[in-house]
C-alpha cells in the first residue's frame, strides 16, 4: 500500500489517488473502432478529441489496453505524450480481447503482470497512476466472486512501483469491502446513470469514506439516454439532454467523477460545459420521476 498525501478538493474537483482532478473528465473507449475493436475510422479526428480534452482542462482520462486492443492507449500516447504534470490516466486490467472481439477474463497473476507491462509500454509511462481491476465474473454487470488473488497480484506490482493506486470496476459492494481489506481501493468504476441506479447505496458509502465513484456509461453507453422528462428539463434550461444527464450525476454525490465518452470534439465540448450547468430543485424532481419510472 502506498501512503496518501493531503490533497484538497472543491465542488469542481475531487481527489483521485493523490491528486485533485476535475470532476468532468474523459473516457477514451469510443476512440477505438466499431465494437471497441480495431482502429478508429478517422485517426486524426481521434487524436484531435484527446488534444481538445486536455486543452479544455481535462486532467482525468479513462482508458484500457483492451480498447482496440491497444488502440486507445497508443492514441493517448501519440496525442498527449509527454503528459501534462497534472494529468491522471486511469487504466483497467482483468480482460483480454479474443480475435472475434470477445471480452475474456484475464485474472491470473502472469496475465495481470503482462497487462500492466503492456499498459506501461503503450502509454509510455514508468508507473501507472491508477489501475482498476475489472471484474469479469459476469462481463455485463457486477457478480460475486473472489478478488483476493488478482488484488494481491496487483498489490505486489504496486510495491514494485509499477502502479501507484489500485481501483475496482464492475464490482459488488461486498467485493469493495473485501478488497479494502487487501489494499487501499482508490476508486470504484461501475455502470451508473439516470436510469441505472443499482449503486445508490454504494455511492453514498464511498462518499462517506472519501472514495471516488466513477460511473461508466454516464450517458447510457452504446444506447444514449432518451426520455421525455430529460428532454423537457433540457429545453427548460436551454441545455442538451446529455448535459442534463451529466449535471444530474455531478449533483448526485460529491465523490462522483465523470468520464463521458465521445469520438467528437463538438460532443466533448458540450459535455464539458455541463460542469457549469446548475440543476434547480424542480429539475431534480422531474429527473427523479424519470428514474422511478425507468
Ligand atoms: N469499467 C468498465 O467496464 C467500462 C465499461 C464501459 C465504459 N467504460 C469507460 O467509461 C467511459 C464512458 O462510457 P461510454 O463512452 O461507453 O458511454 P457514455 O459516455 O455513456 O456514452 C457514449 C455515447 O454517447 C455519445 N455521446 C457522447 N457525448 C454526446 C453528446 N454530447 N451528444 C450526443 N451523444 C453523445 C457517444 O457518441 P459520439 O462518439 O458520437 O459522441 C457514444 O455513443 C468509456 O469511454 C470508458 O472509458 C468502462
Layout of secondary structure:
Blueprint: E1 13-16, E2 19-22, E3 26-27, H1 43-55, E4 60-62, H2 71-80, E5 88-93, E6 95-97, E7 103-105, H3 109-123, E8 128-134, H4 148-159, E9 163-169, H5 173-180, E10 185-189, H6 200-209, H7 228-237, H8 241-252, H9 265-273, H10 281-293
Parallel strand pairs: 3-4, 4-5, 5-8, 8-9, 9-10
Antiparallel strand pairs: 1-2, 6-7
The structure holds NADP nicotinamide-adenine-dinucleotide phosphate.
Number of helices: 10
The assigned CATH architecture is Alpha-Beta Barrel
What is the gyration radius calculated from CA atoms?
18 Å
Low-confidence stretches: 1-8
Structural features:
294 residues, TIM Barrel, six-stranded parallel beta sheet, 10 helices, globular, disordered N terminus
Can you characterise this structure?
- This protein has one domain: NADP-dependent oxidoreductase domain (TIM Barrel, Alpha-Beta Barrel), CATH 3.20.20.
- It contains 10 helices and 10 strands.
- The chain has helices at residues 43-55, 71-80, 109-123, 148-159, 173-180, 200-209, 228-237, 241-252, 265-273, 281-293, and strands at residues 13-16, 19-22, 26-27, 60-62, 88-93, 95-97, 103-105, 128-134, 163-169, 185-189.
- The strands form 3 sheets. A 6-stranded parallel beta sheet has the order 3-4-5-8-9-10, with helices on one face.
- Helix 1 (43-55) packs across helix 2, helix 3 (109-123) crosses helix 4 and helix 7 (228-237) packs across helix 8.
- The protein is globular, with a radius of gyration of 18 Å.
- The model is unreliable at 1-8 (pLDDT under 50).
- Bound molecules: NADP nicotinamide-adenine-dinucleotide phosphate (NAP).
